[in-house]
Specification:
Keywords: Membrane, Transmembrane, Transmembrane helix. By secondary structure, the chain is mainly α. Helix content is about 70%, strand content about 0%.
Length: about 70
């Protein structure tokens, strides 16, 4: 598995999930640890998402041309 495929399959969605979990952690009132680090989780997810989206995807074969 190439790094580009790994990025597309795991890192990019993982950073999106981290952003969402950070927002949920900020909004919940029960756990002080999650509330304390919710903004950090959101920022780390945002920075990771910005980095992973700059990595180009693997070249896919053109499906419109007949073979």
């Amino acid at each position: 598995m190439t790094f580009r495929a790994l990025n597309q399959k795991y890192l990019e969605p993982g950073s999106q999930y981290l952003m969402v979990l950070g927002i949920i952690a900020l909004c919940q009132p029960w756990n002080l640890f999650l509330h304390r680090y919710g903004m950090t989780m959101t920022l780390v997810g945002l920075i990771a998402f910005m980095v992973t989206t700059k990595i180009p995807r693997d070249a896919q074969p053109d499906e419109s041309s007949p073979s």
